[in-house]
Amino acid sequence: MVDISTTSEHVANGNEQTHKQKDQALNSSSGSKPPESFIAQLKDALSPDPGSEHLFNADNNKFAFTPGQLGKLINPKSLPAFYALGGLQGLEKGLRTDRSTGLSVDETTLSGRVSFEDATAGSVHVIHKSVTRVDSAKLQYAPTDSASFVDRKHIFSDNKLPEKKTKTLLELAWITYNDKVLILLTIAAVISLGLGLYQTFGQPHKPGEAKVEWVEGVAIMVAIIIVVLVGTLNDWQKERQFVKLNKKAEDRSVKVIRSGVSQQISVFDVLVGDVMHLEPGDLIPVDGIFIEGHSVKCDESSATGESDLLRKVPADDVFKALESEDFRNLNKLDPFLISGSKVSEGTGTFLVTATGVNSAHGRTTMALREESDATPLQQKLNVLADYIAKLGGAAALVLFVVLFIKFLAQLKGSDLNASQKGQAFLQIFIMSVTVVVVAVPEGLPLAVTLALAYATTRMLKDNNLVRVLKACETMGNATTVCSDKTGTLTENKMTVVASTIGQSASFRSIVSECGTDEKTTTPTTSSGLSMNASISSLSLEVKSLLVAAITVNSTAFEGVQEGRATFIGSKTETALLEFARDRLGAGPVQTERANANVVEVIPFDSSRKFMATIVKLPNGLFRAYVKGASEILLEKCSDVLADPTSSTLDSTALGPEQIDDLSRIITTYASQTLRTIALSYRDYESWPPEGSSGDTNNVEEFLSVHEDMTLIGIVGIKDPLRAGVREAVRDCRDAGVAVRMVTGDNILTAKAIAEECGIYTPESDGIVMEGPAFRRLSEDEMKQTVLKLQVLARSSPEDKKLLVKTLKVLGETVAVTGDGTNDAPALKTADIGFSMGIAGTEVAKEASAIVLMDDNFASIVKGIMWGRAVNDAVKKFLQFQLTVNITAVILTFITAVASDEEESVLTAVQLLWVNLIMDTFAALALATDPPNRNILKRLPDRKSAPLITLRMWKMIIGQAIFQLVVTLILNFAGKAILNYDTPQEEEELKTLVFNTFVWMQIFNQYNNRRLDNNLNIFEALTKNTFFIIINIIMVGGQILIIFVGGRAFNVTRLNGIQWAISIVLGALSLPWAVFIRLIPDMWAAKIIPYSMRHRWFPDAITPKEVRRKGTTTGPEDLQFMRLIRGGRVNSIKIRAKGYAGEGGVW
Fold first, then answer.
1. 796 neighbors 607 (Cβ within 8 angstroms)
2. Mean pLDDT within 1051-1060
3. Where is the composition biased (Polar residues) (predicted)?
4. Biggest alpha carbon distance in the chain?
């Protein structure tokens, strides 16, 4: 017996566990003393770490253990803690569960309690409430009911992490207000209000003169409040959208055993005590202890930093080793499953011991929660915003200096008193600061966030779940898509429609192009017999061999989906299982497997393209069942079943003639778009057999004896093409996006399907190649080949990654689809990785940027459309805002300098309203235009394309010129043109200029709905409700300002003629935009100096012009922008290195 006295202090749990109980647990197994290090660790095996004492206390605990004690198993891995808790049997009893049947679906509250002593005493098998085995058809795929597992959730909680604390409205308001310019304006407003109050109540007024000097200060404050309020609500809505998206991104289905039946539940509903399945590619969501399985190896690099794959040892074997004092390989005794790690090989089950915040991954996630980085588009915009900030700041400084000099020059001989002089100086200061407000586009860095938030929400409705924000915008510029075949281009609804068993028996379903609907197909054999007649001719022994080869050598299982019993797992395996059940009379899969004495499982691997299971037969022999790619398995076979109708499993040698016949069968199946799978077996005298490598790695051991197999048969599986795939491939081609099929299938199958869906086009010299041939190409040959490569068959994940890397070297923006664990490197390497939401492994999903919720290729096309819509939305907003920026700054500068009173025609409050229009309203209106089909009728932008194109500059400068000409003519010549003489009419003229300026912006929004030279600016307008609503708000706001703004906005009411002048002049921007669009882009390019064109618009350089190479470097960060603005700009994480040099921001 292990006899260890414990001296360390221990915090009592809800069961009032004492040192005595703990010692009893450690003494519960027989054997002599283990090593001193193990003894030393046992002393503190279950002691709480500082700060975690609360996890060891649990009120009304009906279980033997607390979350703190279970946490000691993993943090770090602790064999002493595992031993102290009584091993798997102790955990099983203490958590009131069962390793075979899992939790009961009927569990609500628990009666009685299990003490620590009861759970850890001896090796008594678990005793608990009997579990009722329920009919699988009654189980529903649904979240666990809130009334279920009440006591279990009370102590251990579920598998949900607390929601990330979002900023409150007040916090967001403070961030928005914490803008240096707004604070500066606030100071100016306070001073203005103070002086205004003094002038209103402390200075004499002429009879009838309104005492309203205080109004301007109040108006500036109100304008600041509105700007902060709108910005706050905008940010709040954005945060809510991303919280919703993150919830969706984190949710997934996992496989557990409850009441003895395997079923799928939400990962959030996994509980301590659940028994979970392990399969290759699974991302383990909780901590646990390995129960049993075959060759399970985990990649824990992301969880522990361990780079090697770690083989998991069944918990009972580990406990027996500790009991028997076998400490020679203590470091290799690893029954621990850590959340966040990935299953690389093998299958099995494990017992969940920690969920949510108590799991290793949960603790790490909680500690690392932080803001996401800026996307590439945000980075480019941030650099541009910094340039504009510098120009706007310089303009404001020059304006202040000029006006201040004029002010000083006019002081001599002035009859103004001190307060009036102070008020005049303050007007200059406020005007200069307001120019900065208008010129510096604070809303610009956030405009892309709004567009992305809107697009990602809408993309989710189109079955694109965006996990990495930058992928949304990058997808718009994708130039090539490397797509899987199965489940993406095809439906992944597989059915066995053809088979050749042995040398003689075969059948073939006449399958329509659309699928395998039994009502419209006629199964026949080569001899004209029906499928049923052909299969019934097989002997009972051959049927039994087929059933075993299919059911035992499979990882799929019977479960429940959407309330009905079905097979869950690989679609190829489920098709074979359905064939075995429906055609061969196989019993329940669990029964077939229970009747087999499985000794070893070699999991499927995409590089080997087969899986194997070794079972011990009643006669003492060991039989290996193998299934996989037909060409590969045929090479490993030396014999084939001679007569499938015979009761003896006699075989005959495979000669060249038979191999040719079987190869032709494979070719025939493949050319008819069937996936071919071979089944083989071999009997061994012992396992491991004589002549094996003796390698401790069971896979290598099997590979060394995988030869001289007997071929059972070859099956053909039909997977119909998805509806709409041909159209989606055509859309990609029209959009300038090349589609390539990358598959592990036979080259003939891949070629036939690629040609069927329009990917393979022999008339365009498209190339079809196999993976082994592709990887042997030299670097130069590969670069030449990939440009015309359309189908890569029999490819490995390494081939896919090599293809992606080569395409990226050639300057392509590459999107890749993948569903397997081994696809993760290619998904990570690609610019945009698409994983499959239905068939994809969790590792693939984590490596991807976007999850296709319906596994459908057509959803990728929708992703391209939304990606382009995001880029277009930001460019539309940018085009609109820069027009307002240029016009407002120049107009303010000219009119203020020319004025005798140093006053701009647009006051500070009026400019704040314009700023609100262009910073927030325009962002909402222009960032929410949904994409239309025409967006696919243009080529993608290159990676180095400038943010502001030549065509955009043509519209920006053209509209700015028009707006400046109109407003300056009205300001300086309006009195003469309109015959205004009286002071009242002069006030009306100023209001007329302001009103006209705003109406030009309102109409210019419509111009900016298009970035190309097409003239239909109203296309799909009715589909953008946001745009219509925002325009109604802007028009309504302007009307209110003119009618009731009065002194606050320095406006006076206008009559009907003046309103008509304002609206007509504003509307003239529409025909003016038509004129601008009719000007050829190359004419506009000729105006720009060559050096500027070379840097910013290389596409505008004609072949006749001499090309010179030049480089530029962009600013490291938005230091100037941060210096003069702050606020929301500081709340964005920015890494903007080198973007100006990569094609420029202009």
1. yes
2. 92
3. 1-16
4. 125
- State the Rg of the chain over Cα: 37
Report, in this order, helix, strand and coil percent for the chain, each rounded to 5. Answer: 50, 15, 35
Return the DSSP state at 11. -
Q: Is the dihedral of CA 441, 1006, 892, 992 positive or negative?
A: negative
Q: Is the pLDDT of residue 911 over 80?
A: no
Structure-token pair, residue 957: 């400068």
| Least confident span in 119-123, 332-336, 547-551 | 119-123
DSSP string, 73-91: TTTTT-HHHHHHTTHHHHH
CA distances 190 to 41, 46, 187, 585, 981, Å, are 68, 63, 5, 88, 35
Residue in the block written with tokens 């621990």: 336
As a whole number, the mean pLDDT across the chain is: 78
What's the distance, CA 920 to chain centroid? 27
Contacts 24+ apart (CB under 8 A), 772-779: 774/799, 774/802, 774/803, 775/799, 775/802
Q: Encode pLDDT of 833-860 as tens digits.
A: 998 887 776 677 778 888 888 888 888 8
Find residue 351's DSSP bridge partners: 275, 289
The answer for residues whose C-beta is within 8 angstroms of residue 357's C-beta and 6 or more apart is 157, 161, 162, 363, 366
Which helix (DSSP H) or strand (DSSP E) does residue 418 occupy?
A: helix 418-439
Show the tokens assigned to 327.
């400490």
Give the list of residues 6+ apart from residue 401 with CB closer than 8 angstroms, or none. Answer: none
Q: 């002393």: which residue's tokens?
A: 43
In angstroms, the CA 367 to CA 610 distance is 41
Residue 375, classed as helix, strand or coil, is coil
Cβ-proximal residues to 484 (8 Å cutoff; 6+ apart), any chain = 741, 742, 743, 817, 818, 819, 836
The one catalytic residue among 158, 269, 484, 941: 484
**Residue tagged 């569990």 (tokens):** 107
Q: What is the mean pLDDT of residues 168-173?
A: 85
> Residue 1143 corresponds to which amino acid?
G
| CA-closest candidate to residue 834, choices 370, 461, 480 | 480
Higher pLDDT, 1048 or 394: 394
Q: How many CB atoms lie within 10 A of CB 1007?
A: 22
Name the nearest CA neighbour of 13 among 98, 72, 87.
Answer: 72
Mean pLDDT of 400-408: 85
CA distance 519 to 1002: 61
**What pLDDT, on the 0 to 100 scale, is given for residue 818?**
81
3-state secondary structure of 150: helix
Is a pLDDT exceeding 70 seen at residue 668? Answer: yes
d(C-alpha 674, C-alpha 297), whole Å: 33
* pLDDT at res. 130: 29
In three-state form (DSSP H/G/I as H, E/B as E, the rest C), the secondary structure along 535-599 is HHCCCHHHHHHHHHHHHCCCCCEEEEECCEEEEECCHHHHHHHHHHHHHCCCCCHHHHHHCCEEE
pLDDT in tens, 1008-1038: 888 888 888 888 788 888 889 888 988 999 9
Q: Is the model's pLDDT at 4 over the cut of 80?
A: no
Q: In this structure, are residues 489 and 721 in contact, taking their beta carbons and an 8 Å threshold?
A: yes
The per-residue b/e assignment along 93-105, b for 16 or more CB within 10 angstroms, e otherwise, is bbbbbbbebbbbb
End-to-end CA distance of the chain: 79
Name the band, by pLDDT with cuts 50, 70 and 90, for residue 888. confident
Percent of the chain with pLDDT over 70: 76
CB 304 within 8 A of CB 259: no
Structure tokens of 412? 């001599």
Is the pLDDT assigned to residue 997 strictly greater than 90?
A: yes
Residue keyed to tokens 């608990």: 128
Verdict on whether the full-model pTM lies above 0.70: no
Helix (H) or strand (E) holding 466: strand 464-466
**484 is a catalytic site residue:** yes
* CA triple 902-904-906, angle to 5 deg: 155
